[in-house]
Amino acid sequence: MSIRVGESAEAATFPKAAKKLLQNTQLRRNVRRATDTIRAKRAKVVEEMPDWQALRTAAQQIKKRTLRDLDTYLVEFEKNCTAAGGKVHWARDADEANAIIIGIIQSHNQKEVIKVKTMTSDETQLNKALEAVGISPWETDLADLIIQLGNDKPSHIVVPALHKNKSEIRQIFLDTMGLKELGHTPEDLAGAARNYLRERFLRVKVGFSGANFAIAETGSVCVVESEGNGRMCVTLPDVLITMFGVEKLIPSFDDLEVFLQLLPRSATGERMNPYNSIWTGVTPGDGPKEFHVILLDNGRTKVLADEESRETLHCIRCAACLNACPVYRQTGGHAYGSIYSGPIGAILTPQLQGMEHSTSLPYASSLCGACYEVCPVKINIPEILIHLRRKIVESGGAALTERMGMAVAGYTLADSGRLATVQKLVQIGRQPLDAIGLPGWSAARDLPEIPTQTFREWWKARGAK
Amino acid sequence: MSTAREEILQRVKAAIGTRAPEEPVAREYSQAGTLSEADKLDLFVSRLEDYNAHVYRCAAGEESATIAEALTARGKTKILIPPGFPAARLPAGPTFIRDTGLDYRDIDATEGALTAATAAIAMTGSLILTHSETEGRRALTLIPDYHLCVVYTSQLSETVPEGLRALAARRTSPVTTIAGPSATADIEMTRVKGVHGPRVLDVIVVSDK
Ligand code: SF4
Description:
The complex is a heterodimer of chains A (465) and B (209). Chain A contains 22 helices and ten strands. In chain A, 51% of the residues lie in helices and 11% in strands. Chain B has a single domain, classed as 3-Layer(aba) Sandwich (Rossmann fold), CATH 3.40.50. The interface between A and B is large, with 95 and 74 residues. Iron/sulfur cluster binds at residues 266, 315-321, 344, 374-377, 379 of chain A.
């Protein structure tokens, strides 16, 4: 059985990819501007919550309890969802999940599916599998649409097109939507997406979604979103397929009151996102007539088996750790070679697909702790990174020099002062690093080659904002 | 060969290993609100306005006049209503079409929808619909570009926990929480009003307690 996390097994190592991305100044500017905005918004709405820490603690405890009895909660969810008219499927890995989904769509003789943003389907590369059998997947989340139309890759887990600015998005829409004209404001761009997708929402008979939370007690599923494309996908089609990782369970409906406070404030810096949809099975006269759930393992039980890092599975995919991470903020998401980027990507990807495929990721960090501080479910990411590094060392995964180089990469990327120090070190002579074998590591990963000019520009612009 | 279900459950059990003693969840976060009725209402209105919803306030009994005022202000003359929306609250003038299983394309061709709500949360400016006879099925408040929602102060909670618990018996009905008109933050992380859901949201808050 092979676990696949998007294309990450074939991706370049972090330092190699980061080196290339650091030269893309436009991308870095876009990433910096977007993450600055979101961090400021988050800080403001978190500050107004005197009980924020109590909410984090409760969330952590709920997740811990869920994992402790995950088998029981999965069976309970299955029972309640089935009783409400849903059909529950189980998938061990990506291929099994894709085959189930294709089977459902083909049993209805359909050739199209409308999709709302689903990390797990990126994980299983569902779109590719659908296209291979002649089924067209329509991404409906604005950012996913930008990625799909622009033939690009997601760089952020909440805002996948975060690396694109307004005018780049406008150009993609102009090139692909067959528009005669298009305004320049964000409202114009949102309007274009509305028109482009409206006909598809009304026409397509199969919808596909993920889930932010699945409630064992009631068999309900909850999707958190902003644009209303999620509501469209889970409401209008005749057949709805919802896939999520087994760790998305929460024991009770009341537990939602914790997560629905933590998630929007952490993810988009809003007190509440515009829409949450919660549904239970099938409701006659309202929404889909057929509802399928796919419970996906794809490596999650492997993560669960490691007591020291299983809390990786607590993640609610808010991306606060990405926005806070000094390394992510410099490189953007593509450097992580996985749909899961930033600090959570650095710990999740290697664990899901096996350490041998991503030995560099746990080093893509300076261990500054910013991720832990903002994480709404209190995942101790730095500790898990260290744990994973230890595992890589024990398995002889990465050569010593390589590991050192990568550790330096994480350390220096995180802080301009440190970069200067390392650069000086290198100006004095490459020998210290060369001596420990960095030449074998290739110039492409040789950190001091980061263009200083660009970096200073970056720093200045950052202060000027 | 075992089924995927058996195998995954088996893997989960094996992965959990020896179960640590169950730890209680300390729900030490704020659950009950502390504001006076008047302050709670003010907070609700300001949070709604923060997210670009337009708010009307009126006393019980003034619903139909306020509905008329809101529709006139938006220039709406033909509005969808759920099957059970009370006729007594409908003003004379506009045409109201009861949704008795309309086709989605017909709903798409209408000017907007008028509905009730089940609950509301002041702190987050949220309306909660459980899609009863007075709130309509989900498509009704999703496809049209305009949503006018009537909510009562007796339905208003201060905190998120209070608001979700108010759903009690209706939590396995479809639930939609709405905080402002549809929006996106996907373009440079700035909230832009209006994507696929209704681009305009008006709320009538009726004081009934
Ligand atoms: S690890 Fe924590 S901060 Fe990062 S995405 Fe997951 S929940 Fe959010």
